[in-house]
Amino acid sequence: xAGESAPAHSHAAYCAVEITDSSIxxxxxxxxxxxxxxxxxxxxxxxxxxxxxxALAESIVVEFKNRQxxx
Length: 71
Hints:
The chain is mainly beta. It has strands at 9-11, 14-18, 22-26, 31-34, 39-42, 45-47, 49-51, 59-63.
């Protein structure tokens, strides 16, 4: 829910589908706002996300096994 955080962790290259509107911050970086239904892909990454929005942030994430780059 709002204000929740996840411990630092890593992902292989991935694609994600946002289930809910969300506002997420990684560490002290900028806030990333996403809309429900938005799809995006990214390279392998490490992060410690914090939900800075006012509601639950949900997404479906598919990771590509043994891949560092999404494309």
